[in-house]
Structure formats: structure tokens, C-alpha cells
Amino acid sequence: MYMFCIMHYYLIIALQGYCIYHALKSKNDYYWIFIILFIPVIGSIIYLFTQAFNKRDLENVQSEIVAIINPTKKVLDLKKQLDFSETFQNKVSLADAFLEIKDYQNAITYYEDAIDSLFSGDVYVISNLIKAHFFNENYESVLKYIQVLKDKKATIKPENLLHYGLSLDNLGKTELAENEFKKINISFSNYHERLILAKHLINKNKKDEAKEILQKVYEESTRFSRDIAKINRHTINNVKSLLKTL
């Protein structure tokens, strides 16, 4: 009983310590420190769910739990829905589900089936096709669908631009790739994409270029507002960790 009480005490201290550390690091209002200290456990839990966890964190945790317990449940449910009604939206929803579980080939199959109709120019589907083809290492197909977006004069998402640049680089089209990388490496934006770009440069043994990008991202992060800091917390933590290795 005594040992249990001791462990319980230290767990509370550890939880409070983490919350206070997070509050200071995230530059949250100082009244949170008093709440954490003077309302043990409850104060820390309130802080975690209102300040430390954002919507994206909770969605990611939920998705990961479902994927671990039953990674194909959503796919099976959506397949039944598609069998019942072969609509454009049902095909896209099933493709999205395959994309979520990293089954890129099946995602490609259903996305391409979806746009093989009146919806051939759907920007959302084409954007996801670019992503799926990239991770399936179909780099020529990435170039093909980027051209579709260009022909439509559609806005190309930073993620798609990154995959386009990386595909060009993987195909040996270095100069064209560098032009696309410049479009990604813009101050105070595209933080996740710039992190991925830095990792790519490290793999290409261009560590100085990678370090320059990472340092710039880190410097920008010191000027983040509280909300922006929360949204990009995971990315910036990865930036810090990667910088320590260079």
C-alpha cells in the first residue's frame, strides 16, 4: 500500500511537471501553471485536453487506434457501400480509406475509376492520386497528374508540389526539381513540407542545404503565435531532433 501511494505521488508530480514544461515551452498563459499546481490531476488533465492536444492530435490518435485494432474495417464497410451504390463519392471514399492505411495501389485503382467519368477533372481526387502515385514510386504518373492540374490552372497544394519536386529528382531531372523545391521553401509556410525536403536533401548527402532549411524553420518557429505553435508542434519537434544530428 505504501509503495502504491509513493508511485501514485510520483506519477502526479511527473504529470504536473510535463504540463508545466509544455505550458512554458508553448508560451501559454501563466494562470495555467497555477491551475496545474493547485488542482492536482484534474488541472493537468484539463490542461492536456484544452492546450496540449489539438484536434489533429485527437484525430490521429483515434485513427491509429482503429488502424491497429482493425485496419480493414473501414475499407470493408465502404466496399459494401460501393457495392450497393457505385457513385463517384463512394468510389472516392473507398480510395481515401485505402490511402489512409497506405494501400496505395488500391487507392490508385479506385481514384482512377472515380475520375474515369464525368468527374475527370476533380481536383481533390487528382491531388490524392499524386500522393498515392508518389508513395507507390510511380514518379512518371506524378508528373502526368501534376500536368492535369496545371492544364486546369488549379491551385497546386504544397504537398503536391513537394511530391512533384521529389519525383523529378528521383527521375534525375535535378534542375527542374530544384525549381520546385524553391516554391516549397518559403518563409513562414510549408513547415511540414520543408522538413520532408530537408530529409530528402540529407539522403542526397546535401546536409548543408538541409541544415539551412531546418535552421530557418526553427528560427521562424520562435515567432509563432500560440495557435500556430500548437498546429506545428510535431513538425517543429522533428526539426529540432534532426538539427541535433547535423
Number of helices: 15
**Coarse structural class:** mainly alpha
Mean pLDDT: 85
Shape: globular
* End-to-end gap: 48 Å
How many strands, which pairing sense, and closed or not: the largest β-sheet? Answer: none
Count the beta strands: 0
Which band does the percent of strand residues land in? under 5%
Helix-strand topology string? HHHHHHHHHHHHHHH
Q: How many whole angstroms does the radius of gyration measure?
A: 22 Å
* Low-pLDDT stretches: none
Helix content: over 70%
Condensed summary:
The protein has 246 residues and is mainly alpha-helical. It has helices at 2-25, 31-38, 42-52, 55-69, 73-84, 88-100, 104-115, 123-135, 139-151, 158-170, 174-184, 191-203, 207-221, 226-231, 233-244. Helix 6 (88-100) packs antiparallel against helix 7, helix 9 packs across helix 10 and helix 10 runs antiparallel to helix 11 (174-184).
Give a verbal description of the structure.
- This protein has 246 residues and is mainly α.
- Helix content is 78%, strand content 0%.
- The protein contains 15 helices and no strands.
- It is globular.
- It starts with a helix and ends with a helix.
- The mean pLDDT is 85.
Structure characteristics:
single chain; 246 residues; mainly alpha; 15 helices
Topology overview:
Elements: H1 2-25, H2 31-38, H3 42-52, H4 55-69, H5 73-84, H6 88-100, H7 104-115, H8 123-135, H9 139-151, H10 158-170, H11 174-184, H12 191-203, H13 207-221, H14 226-231, H15 233-244
